[in-house]
């Protein structure tokens, strides 16, 4: 997440940076005390901008227009000690409005309710697993990976839902495929597992599925996943969650992650 902070008070900038570094530790933060400082930097493509409204030689309202011109999907959050600017901020369709002095939870609330979704920066050497909404797995170029069998894909989804814990083949048979684990089903799961590993390998990814006697698990450190990011406190994925989790899979309706 790339964040812009502009305030003519150095103490206010330091306070905001400290809060953001705590709430979004992996964020790229750019801070300035003047509009001219921002313009000279040449920085663009911000995801969120926290702007003071009174900036000495100009206003945060004017600055917001400049930022939006270069970064149309930037979420503008005005930060000020004067409530009378709220109407002007509303007219500009800003993402949020925070009154000084603010608390950490005020900033967290704004980050949790951004107007525009923040694009998730994916780890290039890992498949990106999307669990919010429909389940999908993206390759290094951001394209959906093709799975030879839909059963293999659903089995992968079930392993992702297990959050890195081992899952027995009995559990997979009963919950995913709704059939008892007899010799026929055991062979099917074995084939699905083999096909799944090959599909991921063909997409350029190494060992992701860990196999032991009659149980499987996903190697969490080998994947990038919106669910795992959220569980680790990454707020950049919050706005991609719209109360939908792995839609289309019956067992997902009972997942503890369905309502986060």
Plain-language structure description:
It is a single chain. The chain has nine helices and eleven strands. Helix 6 (150-161) packs across helix 8 (183-202). It starts with a strand and ends in a 29-residue tail after the last helix. It is an alpha/beta fold and 260 residues long. The protein is 36% helix and 17% strand. The strands form three sheets. A five-stranded parallel sheet has the order 2-1-3-4-5, sandwiched between helices. A three-stranded mixed sheet has the order 7-6-11. The chain has helices at 10-23, 35-41, 60-70, 86-91, 104-112, 150-161, 169-176, 183-202, 226-231; strands at 2-6, 28-32, 48-52, 75-80, 96-99, 128-130, 136-138, 167-168, 209-212, 215-218, 224-225. The model has no long low-confidence stretch (mean pLDDT 88).
Low-confidence stretches: none
Mean pLDDT: 88
Shape: elongated
Give the terminus-to-terminus CA distance.
Answer: 21 Å
Helix content: 25-40%
Portion of residues in beta strands equals: 15-25%
Number of helices: 9
Spatial order of the strands forming the largest sheet: 2-1-3-4-5
| Secondary-structure element pattern, one letter each | EHEHEHEHEHEEHEHHEEEH
Q: Compute the number of strand runs.
A: 11
Keywords:
single chain, 260 residues, five-stranded parallel β-sheet, three-stranded mixed β-sheet, elongated
List the helices and strands and how they pair.
Layout: E1 2-6, H1 10-23, E2 28-32, H2 35-41, E3 48-52, H3 60-70, E4 75-80, H4 86-91, E5 96-99, H5 104-112, E6 128-130, E7 136-138, H6 150-161, E8 167-168, H7 169-176, H8 183-202, E9 209-212, E10 215-218, E11 224-225, H9 226-231
Parallel strand pairs: 1-2, 1-3, 3-4, 4-5, 6-11
Antiparallel strand pairs: 6-7, 8-10, 9-10
Helix pairs in contact: 6-8
